[in-house]
Amino acid sequence: MPLLTSPSLPASVRGEKRRLFMLAMTIVLIFAGVTAWSAVHQDRYSRSGSGCFSVTIPSSTGGALLHQCGARARASCRGALHHHDRLSLLMRPPCRSAGLP
Question: Can you give the pTM of this predicted structure?
């Protein structure tokens, strides 16, 4: 009755499955680590401060990041204080948090 017994897998097949499982787990752990790091790590454009400002503005593609530092940032913030268009109103809070006029 050889048909009633379950065939055992050769050692090479079990080793291959173990290697595939370890590779899959390594990929999952790397992905989880990168995801966790990107969730808590802030880049230099994430917030305004120390003479630089960042603001997301409406664009033809949905949105664009406007990031400026130094003299350009001061000039843009001064202009935003004197105008009342939508872009100027969006720029005012980041300019204030960056300490720019």
Answer: 0.52
